[in-house]
Amino acid sequence: MDNTIMLTDSHLLSILQLASPALPVGAYSYSEGLEMLVENGTIANHTHLKDWLKAELLYGAIRLEAGVMVRSQQATKMGDIESLCRWNLWLSAARETEELRASSWQMGRSLIQLLGKLEPQIIPIANAVGNPCNYAIAFGIAVAHWQISIQAALLGYLHSWASNLITAGVKLIPLGQTAGQQLLLDLQPLFSVAALEILALEDDELACCSWGLSLASMQHETQYTRLFRS
To answer: What is the reported pLDDT for 2?
Structure first.
């Protein structure tokens, strides 16, 4: 099967903007438990971080989030506000800890507010979803509005997630900038595999095995010294 993604220049630039570290949604302020994992020695070097990110891409919560992003795009495209709201509530309920839920809500709120200023046509949809709005939901709304290929959107979503965590790892472990970029390059084939698998998931297959992330997030709440919000 030909999985080539065809993008116009406009669509390519749109997904680059959505996935950019410069997008002012506050993603840089979250480590998703990495801060605790580094402190307790679970992640101590480049290899440990690579193994952790690979496991998350194959089995973790990022797959669930990305799956909801796909459904958000589909619901927005079809004008199905009821499904959009239902998936937003579902994702909020699926978050394992208060910190992880709060980060999703804060980033979602920031993205929705930004989109409302850039694209006022989105405001009625945003108002219908209400507050809190999860980040994956807001991302899907933007993807639908800008008519970005869902395959490209998924790759951008996964790449952005990994970039943020690798940046956190570079600061926390610490790693060199070159090591961080090499890690991102090494993960590229897995992004493509994960994206295809996520696209094939049925609704009742949306699940994750991320108890390590959950435990790290719970401990981060009481961590004495913290640089990140999760």
So the answer is: 47
